[in-house]
Amino acid sequence: MPLRFKGSRLEINYATSAAGGIWIEIQDPKGQPIPGFTLDECPKIIGDQIERTVAWKGDSDLSSLSGKPVRMRVVLKNADLYSIRFH
Fold first, then answer.
1. How would residue 1 be classed by pLDDT, with cut points 50, 70 and 90?
2. What CA–CA distance (Å, rounded) separates 51 from 35?
3. CA-only gyration radius of the chain, Å
4. Looking at CB atoms within 10 Å, which of 5, 28, 53, 55 has the fewest?
5. Angle in degrees, CA 38, 44, 47, rounded to 5
6. Following DSSP, what letter does each residue of 44-84 receive, concatenated?
7. pTM score of the predicted model
């Protein structure tokens, strides 16, 4: 189901094992990856942080998608995702 958010960045609260990781993709309402926000453009997120800003190719600015319907695809490998927050 698509969601709408306000803000310009995505923060996550997570924990991974040393061999694990998290990748996040932003998709259009039909489930197609949005260029600039694909899984391939999201570096592997590892560690244990309360407020980690997600970036794609070093860019965390989501303001171009704010207020528009989007979907999120989250891939977890030996990881826990506790919360997400848009700012």
1. confident
2. 25
3. 12
4. 53
5. 140
6. PB-SEEEEEE--BTTB---GGGTTS-BEEEEEEEEEEEEEE
7. 0.94
